[in-house]
Amino acid sequence: MDIISLPIEYDHSKIDSRFRLIAIASQRAKELALGATPRVKTKSKKVTTIAIEETINNTVEFLVGEEAVKAREEASKFDYRKLLEEKKREVTSEDLTEFEKDLKVYLNEREALERDKKALEGLFGDKQEEGAEE
User: Fold this and answer.
1) Residues whose CB is less than 8 angstroms from the CB of residue 33 and which lie 6 or more positions away in sequence, other chains included
2) Is 44 within 8 Å of 50 (Cβ atoms)?
3) How far apart are CA 120 and CA 97, in angstroms?
4) Which of 6-10, 18-22, 92-96, 126-130 has the highest mean pLDDT?
5) Sequence-separated (6 or more) residues with CB below 8 Å from residue 101
6) Which residue has the higher pLDDT, 1 or 7?
7) How far apart are CA 99 and CA 120, in angstroms?
8) Looking at residue 65, what is its pLDDT?
9) On the CB side of 96, how many CA atoms lie within 13 Å of its CA?
């Protein structure tokens, strides 16, 4: 197994410090852990080692300075909940299976019966109470 030798040699014109190198590699390791495909050929199996190799080889894109600040502000403005709600609304009846269609009809009919039952109780319940009092 190959071990990354210390100290790590990297391009100082693109990455200004070891801290930034590790910050970039940690973000990339998270992506790799979530299933992203590695961008370099390596014998390593650990996502952290692969992420460091990718960062050293300049295959990972990153932003620094004002561009990074603007990108962070844009990301914070992005509302993921709103996006999920919009996706839910886009589901049409064509996407529903036959079972879901039948279930939807059943639930709508059941709600209608419950409303009718409450309406009838409201109409006849008052008259029964008046008749019982007499």
Assistant:
1) 47
2) yes
3) 35
4) 18-22
5) 93
6) 7
7) 31
8) 84
9) 14
Tokens 């979530």 locate to 34
pLDDT tens for each residue of 27-66: 899 989 988 899 999 888 899 999 999 999 889 888 888 9
Q: Can you tell me the distance from the alpha carbon of 25 to that of 44, in angstroms, rounded to the nearest whole number?
A: 15
Question: What three-state secondary structure class fits 78?
Answer: coil
Token digits for 12? 């100082």
d(CA 21, CA 76): 24
Distance CA 70, CA 67 (A): 5
Q: Per the structure block, which two tokens stand in for 69?
A: 């600040």
How far is Cα 117 from Cα 32, in angstroms, rounded to an integer?
Answer: 57
Cβ-proximal residues to 28 (8 Å cutoff; 6+ apart), any chain: 51, 54, 55, 60
Q: Give the pLDDT of residue 108.
A: 77
